[in-house]
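Memo to structure team: turn this sequence into structure tokens by end of day. - J.P.
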Amino acid sequence: MSTKLHIKKGDTVFVNTGEDKGKTGRVLEVRPKDQRAIVEGINMVSKHSKPSAKNPQGGIIKQEAAIHISNLQVVDPSKGGPARIGRRLNAQGKLVRYAKKSGEEIK
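Reply from structure team:
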């Protein structure tokens, strides 16, 4: 069973709560199974890594950790702020996402 989420890879999202509240970023990865997303520059964590071919020095690496999708809102393309998302059929009969307040379609 796959769950439909209001967020897709490549969307610009606004963070509602937590340490990064008020920041925006681009979605790099969505994990529908655990309802989490990885957002560029948001929820940064320090990861200790052993030396490898990719990183011969090893040490501490800063990287993004997953954040729950309930803490994210898609940014409205016309207004620029966070928006609630709905789904409707467009002129071609295709189901598309749209911002509820402005009515603007989200690409």
